[in-house]
Amino acid sequence: MGIVEDIHQKKDFRSQYHKVHVNILYSSSWILERVKDFLENEEITPQQYNILRILKGSRPIPISTLQIRERMLDKMSDTSRLVDRLVKKGLAEKNINQIDKRLVDVNISDKGLEVLDRLDERNKELDNITNRLTVAEALLMNELLDKMRGTI
Fold it and tell me: Whole-model pTM above 0.90?
């Protein structure tokens, strides 16, 4: 089934570019729903998962909420609120920066690392979201998406 059938499109798209926009938005939402299902058992959101991955990647060096926001996939997220929820769940730790008291340093906690370890054991499930593509097709899609954003 293609995008026309998936969204029950009655009229033609105004252009192939318009169809690409709609298809990417629809596909993004489709992937996000599967990622939410993947994260459901750990009771974290995709944005919280993204923050935990960022924190693990910067480990052992703490980073500020501003640095987290710069690295996030969803730039519209309320980073401070998301970090506070992770702290409340015991998945992250916040401390006042010793050099600049206006900044907050954020680290992943041991419990946060355990959550990521459990999820990493199931990474194949995430890969299966796009496993209808061959490796060559995935490479091409990555190149095309990078080209569309002007990053190559």
Answer: no
- The residues, any chain, with a CB within 8 Å of residue 42's CB and separated by 6 or more, are 115, 118, 119
pLDDT, block means (10 residues), the chain with 152 residues: 74 88 92 95 95 96 92 86 96 90 91 96 93 95 93 72
CA distance 144 to 56: 29
The enclosing H or E element of 11 equals none
Residues 138, 130 contacting (CB under 8 angstroms):
yes
Nearest C-alpha neighbor of 44 from the set 101, 116, 108: 116
CATH of 43-118, one of 2.102.10.10, 3.40.50.720, 3.40.190.10, 1.10.10.10: 1.10.10.10
On whether the CB atoms of residues 26 and 4 are closer than 8 A, the answer is no
Enumerate the domain spans of the chain: 1-42, 43-118, 122-152
Please spell the DSSP secondary structure of 78-117, one letter per residue: -HHHHHHHHHHTTSEEEEE-SS-TTSEEEEE-HHHHHHHH
